[in-house]
């Protein structure tokens, strides 16, 4: 833990290619369009890799980015329903980038960000595989907000641990431009109560939209998309 007068340094990681295993290629339908999404298919190999162990000991890192989570589809479905979207979006904890790819299909310029360089490489690959190139990547640890603001923040399944809540709230307050919108999806994890309380304490305006998405073995996963404004 840094001393009071020390600035927190961001943590970054690059998952090596030999940790990824065989890749999965999946078609995902969002709204009226279908998107091709590629992601690592061997979670056990990734978890057992020495680089993952080292990163966990350094910062409690886990390679959650390497799944196509139901929350990503929840966020994407709500995104295509929005009217009057701005021209630029920042996806934080982008993982393999489905929401950002969908934002690209809506004509937005997208900044894919993650603290794992390999995650951003997959997001960029998925964008290009679907014919979209108006994007950039940005290594980003949300505990250390960047010195700029954006009108739209996208975040799928990022409150899976209590320790993420305070820095995420601080990030939203620092990076979301006045009048902007943060769309954050979550599969109603046990952390939702603490997250809603933190939003209220931060005096952020929020509406909740119940959503569902396909999960493992075709079962329906219930969740919520939070629409957050300053």
Provide a descriptive summary of the structure in words.
The protein has 230 residues and is α/β, with parallel strands linked by helices. It has a single domain (67-229), classed as 3-Layer(aba) Sandwich (Rossmann fold). 30% of the residues lie in helices and 30% in strands. It has 7 helices and 9 strands. The protein has helices spanning 43-48, 50-59, 70-79, 98-105, 117-129, 165-175, 192-201, and strands at residues 23-30, 33-40, 88-92, 109-114, 135-139, 150-156, 176-186, 205-214, 220-229. Strands 5-4-3-6-7-9-8 form a 7-stranded mixed β-sheet, sandwiched between helices. A two-stranded antiparallel ribbon has the order 1-2. A hairpin with a 2-residue loop joins strand 1 (23-30) and strand 2. The longest helix has 13 residues, at 117-129. The protein is globular, with a radius of gyration of 17 Å. It starts with 22 loop residues before the first strand and ends with a strand.
Overall pLDDT confidence: 94
Order of H and E elements:
EEHHHEHEHEEHEHEE
Major sheet attributes: 7 strands, mixed
Number of helical regions: 7
- Poorly predicted regions are 1-5
What do we call the CATH homologous superfamily?
Answer: Vaccinia Virus protein VP39
- Helix residue percentage: 25-40%
Please tell me the CATH architecture by its name: 3-Layer(aba) Sandwich
| Helix-strand category | alpha/beta
Strand portion? 25-35%
Main traits of this protein?
disordered N terminus; single chain; 30% strand; Rossmann fold; globular; 230 residues; seven-stranded mixed beta sheet; alpha/beta
């Amino acid at each position: 833990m840094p001393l009071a007068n020390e600035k927190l340094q961001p943590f970054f990681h690059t998952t090596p290619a030999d940790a990824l295993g065989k890749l999965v290629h999946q078609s995902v339908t969002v709204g009226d369009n279908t998107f091709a999404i590629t992601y690592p298919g061997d979670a056990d190999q990734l978890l057992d890799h020495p680089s993952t162990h080292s990163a966990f000991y350094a910062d409690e890192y886990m390679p959650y980015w390497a799944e196509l989570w139901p929350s990503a589809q929840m966020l994407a479905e709500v995104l295509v329903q929005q009217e009057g979207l701005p021209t630029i979006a920042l996806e934080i904890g982008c993982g393999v980038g489905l929401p950002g790819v969908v934002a690209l299909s809506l004509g937005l310029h997208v900044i894919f960000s993650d603290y794992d360089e390999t995650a951003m490489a997959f997001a960029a690959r998925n964008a290009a595989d679907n014919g979209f190139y108006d994007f950039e990547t940005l290594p980003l640890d949300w505990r250390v907000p960047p010195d700029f603001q954006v009108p739209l923040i996208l975040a799928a399944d990022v409150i899976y641990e209590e320790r993420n809540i305070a820095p995420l709230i601080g990030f939203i307050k620092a990076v979301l431009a006045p009048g902007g919108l943060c769309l954050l999806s979550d599969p109603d994890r046990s952390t939702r109560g603490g997250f809603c309380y933190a939003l209220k304490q931060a005096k952020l305006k929020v509406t909740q939209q119940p959503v569902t998405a396909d999960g493992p073995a075709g079962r329906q996963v219930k969740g919520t998309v939070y629409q957050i404004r300053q």
